[in-house]
Amino acid sequence: MSKIHKVAVLVGSLRKASINRKLALALAELAPPSLQLQLVEIGDLPLYDEDIDVSPAPEAYSRFREQVRGADALLFVTPEYNRSIPAPMKNAIDVGSRPYGQSVFSGKPGAVLSASPGAIGGFGANHHLRQCLVFLDVYVLQQPEAYLGGAGKFFDDSGKLDAGIEGFLQKFIDAYAAWVERHLGR
């Protein structure tokens, strides 16, 4: 049996009923046995402030850093706000990448999925997030790219995932599992 890789999943929307949270949970259901996806909450992180990031760091910073540090891989699922990533996602990136030289993201394989009710599926957020991750030394999955437009129609009233998007999500999570294995299976 192959090793099970722990994946920290960061969701850019804080809403309980967010489309992106639902997609993250759907990906956890579709993931092959080699991946164990765990949502890491980012909503309680105070805005990053170097003045409060002293020993001891705020409890929320420490908890977040330990959860991400303990993961083998990263998965970012985010909407787009104003052609970029939502503030909570950027804040989580800032908290996890500090103190300088102690990033909890460095060297981990990752992937980005963006979803929006709009037509371009969070393209701007996806690319801005990828830009941050490259700087943070995250090995980001290149293909398949995942910009999911029309995301408001992915779930029915009972919360069941639409079969039309399920096939793409399966392809995405399978490609991601292979990517993680490629980088961690050495």
From TrEMBL:
Domain NADPH-dependent FMN reductase-like: from-to ranges: 6-150
Source species taxonomy: Bacteria, Pseudomonadati, Pseudomonadota, Gammaproteobacteria, Pseudomonadales
Keywords annotated in UniProt: Flavoprotein, FMN
InterPro entries: Flavoprotein-like_sf, FMN_Rdtase-like_dom, NAD(P)H-dep_reductase
Any GO molecular function: oxidoreductase activity, acting on NAD(P)H, quinone or similar compound as acceptor
Protein name (Swiss-Prot/TrEMBL): NADPH-dependent FMN reductase-like domain-containing protein
SUPFAM superfamilies attached to this UniProt entry: Flavoproteins
Names of the cofactor(s): FMN
Pfam families on file: FMN_red
